[in-house]
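Quick one: structure for this chain?
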Amino acid sequence: MTVQRKFYAPGRVNLIGEYTDFNGGLVFPCAINRGTSLQVTEDRSIDGIALSSDDFDFTTTVVCSSEAKPVGREWVNYPLGVMVEFAKLGFNPSAFRFNYSGDLPLSAGLSSSASVSVVTAVALNELTGANLSAQELALLSQRSENTFINVQCGIMDQFVIAMAQSDCAIALDCATLEYQQIPLNLKEYRIVIGNTNQPRNLKGSAYNDRVNECQAALKTLAPVTHAKQLADVTPDQFYEHSNLLTDAIVRKRAQHVVEECDRVNRATVALKAGRLEEFGRMMLQSHVSLRDLFEVSSDTLDCMVDLAMNTDGVIGSRMTGAGFGGCTVSLVHQESVDHFIESVGSKYESQMKLKADFYVTTAMNGASEVLN
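Got it. Here's what it folds into:
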């Protein structure tokens, strides 16, 4: 009898705290009710692991080796990078078929790539008996993207996808990995994700440039603030020493990171206290900062946020993810959701000549094996 097992990893939406993760700062994401399924079938005729997807035509068989190299720019590099990390730990599984499927929009800022990486890590962990913790699997998945895909992402995406709990968002300190599962008590409001359907290409974007600009800011500010990470710089310290940042671009990047970390702190306090409108205002402030200071928004994202904030029943909206296209996240009164989708959708299409998609989501559990 053929042995089959199924694994699942959600995507994620970040409610506030963008581009703070690789700066050692605070983020506040939750897992969503869309994700990646992985069907694993044992096949002893295969020397290696056969990779296929319902969403892509490209298929290949790879050997789980620490010496494996990327396969062009194909989707299989995400699971292959995870396999390389397992091989470095001495685990070289073989004789399996891995078939991936999912309902996460691609290149939309909802972590479809991290979802693929983490579901692969969870599966390999079970198949090999590696016995790594969920947090260790998140770190391994991040390593694979940093070293194999060569995108210098922070830990946020992999961490929340691996560690999320239902009906909670995670307040995560990306420097220490200290975290709190905070109940996402939104009362009569719902999380609505708006997909601009302007695809983003993270690797081809200015993402790595932003990493370098933030590192340049830290190098200048560290001697006078004693900060080990850019997120360690307080707003007061930044305002006192910002004149040292003579490059205007670097100064803007640093200002966003410093103020965004402060926003996450204040936003989580507001949420715990049930002050949802205050939380929503800080979501919008975050978007303005990402647009004007970090410069990672786009015309489509700005349009959708503007339309959202001018729609009845909306208390907050912002771009989410790495930007350069992708998705927005809005807090919408439950009685206004249908009107929001119809109104924002039609006006967005009229202005941007693109048809938007909308996903009403709830906070879900993290990655695991699916047991019937």
